[in-house]
Write a structure and sequence with these properties.
308 residues, mainly alpha, 3-stranded parallel beta sheet, 43% helix, elongated
Length: 308
């Protein structure tokens, strides 16, 4: 419920009252890429009539939102918020990006009550989440036999089904051409089926190797994410010139998703920015894109949210 206070001044000068809200507001107002350093509570620099009208609009929005979301669960504006989760800034940025996608949330000039709008927009939001790969059809089974039916495993691939299914770091060392990629994908499919992972990201040392991996993953994507809801995204400086990626975008853009088109869906929206690669269900990028998640660059908290 910090969202309701995004543009609402906290008039009480008692720091103990204001302090719990500051991390929430910082997280929400960082959706353009950087978290604000602090909250000064400086007065607005405008004509007095405009300030009064602005304050009244904020107060009306605050009260209407509280009635819609807080009152039904027995809460009120007088309740202090809990500690702000570390990943909340990334969550807010993803919500802001999705909410700004005009292909789902178009402008409406006809005024409507907030409660009516909320009821109408929920199924649209669910459609947007599924289209962008954030809601997926669960994978029921994983492993080499599921991912590569009719293929005879070799080398390290024999060990995939013997590995424990748990979160952690798994290293595969083998000679070039020994099938490490297939083994890694098969193990990832087991994690997906167990609900221990939600996406697959390949970070390659160069754009050329990323391009080659893109072509290999296109054929296996429907097995990893059944139901036609897998988004396959390529992210590096020259991704827009990749022929395979351009073909995937062309198939998904503006088409009714049939069996062929839905096999690998890649939203144009996801492809517009390298920051969004980790929202795809299958991301292929250069290793620097992953390293940026721990550096204080724009939207680093989005990368941290997805990697978590």
């Amino acid at each position: 419920y910090a969202h309701f206070l995004k543009h609402t001044e906290l008039h009480n000068n008692d720091l103990s009252v204001r302090a719990p809200w500051i991390p929430w507001m910082q997280a929400i107002m960082g959706h353009h890429g950087q978290l604000p350093e602090g909250y000064s509570g400086s007065p607005l620099d405008a004509e007095e009539a405009l300030i009064r009208a602005d304050h009244q609009a904020r107060q009306t929005w605050l009260e209407a939102s509280a009635d819609l979301f807080l009152t039904p669960v027995g809460l009120g504006l007088e309740h202090a918020p809990p500690p702000c989760p570390d990943m909340f800034a990334g969550f807010c940025s993803v919500c802001d990006w999705l909410g700004s996608d005009s292909s789902y949330f178009s402008a409406n000039a006809t005024p409507a009550p907030l409660e009516s709008y909320w009821q109408c927009v929920q199924p649209i939001a669910a459609q947007a989440l599924r289209a962008h790969g954030l809601i997926r059809t669960p994978l029921k089974q994983g492993g080499m036999s599921h991912l590569y039916p009719g293929y005879t495993p070799r080398g390290v691939q024999h060990l995939v089904d013997e590995r424990p299914v748990r979160r952690g770091l798994t290293l595969i060392e083998a000679a070039t051409g020994s099938g490490k990629t297939e083994a890694a994908l098969a193990y990832a499919s087991r994690l997906l089926a167990a609900g221990l992972a939600e996406s697959v990201v390949f970070a390659l040392p160069s754009q050329a190797t990323a391009n080659a991996m893109m072509a290999r993953l296109e054929s296996v994507a429907p097995m990893l994410f059944p139901g036609g809801d897998a988004n396959l995204v390529l992210a590096h400086g020259l991704a827009r010139f990749n022929v395979d990626f351009a073909a995937i975008k062309a198939r998904a853009h503006g088409s009714v998703q049939g069996a062929e088109e839905a096999a690998v869906q890649c939203s144009q929206w996801l492809a517009q920015s390298r920051k969004r690669v980790f929202l795809g269900q299958i991301g292929v990028c250069t290793v620097d894109q992953v390293l940026l998640s721990v550096l204080p660059v724009r939207h680093h908290f989005v990368r941290a949210l997805i990697h978590l």
